[in-house]
Fold this sequence. Notes:
Blueprint: H1 2-25, E1 33-37, E2 40-42, H2 44-60, E3 65-68, E4 81-89, H3 91-95, E5 102-109, E6 112-120, E7 125-130, E8 135-137, E9 140-141, E10 153-156, H4 166-179, E11 182-184, H5 189-197, E12 203-209, H6 211-223, E13 227-229, E14 243-248, H7 250-256
Parallel strand pairs: 3-4, 10-11, 10-12
Antiparallel strand pairs: 1-2, 4-5, 5-6, 6-7, 7-8, 8-9, 12-14, 13-14
Helix pairs in contact: 1-2, 5-6
Amino acid sequence: MKENHLLQIRRIMESAVREAAELILQAHGILAETKTGKRDVVTEYDRRVQETLIALLSDAVPGAHFFCEEMDEQDRLDEKQVFIIDPIDGTMNFVHGLKHSCISVAYMEEGEVRVGMIYNPYTDELFSAIAGGGAECNGKAIHVTDTGLADSIVCFGTAPYQPALTDRTFSLARKLFDAGLDLRREGAAALDLCTVAAGRAGLFFELQLSFWDYAAGQLIVKEAGGVCTSPDGVPLSQDGSKCGVVAGSPAAVKDYFSL
């Protein structure tokens, strides 16, 4: 019964995400507004995508609550049904026409993320996972690579809103560059987590992310056989607070903690 319920939630999420993504694909005349600083930007499309998702999901799941990047006041995460939404992850990419951005939606039930979905409208790749049901991309099962760090590409984020973390970030990036095959910095943490889940990269790290950045991706990585933890090895925060993230194949994450 529970599996059927979550499959229904997944179908609802996919329909909403695909409809909202049309706003991204049709975007033009994109103007960026700054939030906390010049690297932290928002556009009318972030707000419109979020509003569309909230409207569609509210209609389909009456009584659901929302924890979203562009909300002034968040609903509580301990409500029975909560959707965690990043309407456009990779907004800076979106503003500059790099076409590497996504919609990330997670469904949390009674304090635990049960369904995760990340959609890249530019490639039409839909990554999703149901707790205990494995991970997939466009309906095909995905799995993390079985290689260690030495045979892996490493993706990373620079925590651009937190300049105090810059030196630590690039020091760690240098260590991982020396230990692995090469580095990639693509500017959308949710998609980086999917890259790991699909076995295209062995490891991802960023020293500070918001819950909406990784809520869906953490489940997709775990259901793809990977490990998702903090840079200090403690479990990721699930209470909405910010934290660092390390995700990868079990072998690559083990190697990370051996550096």
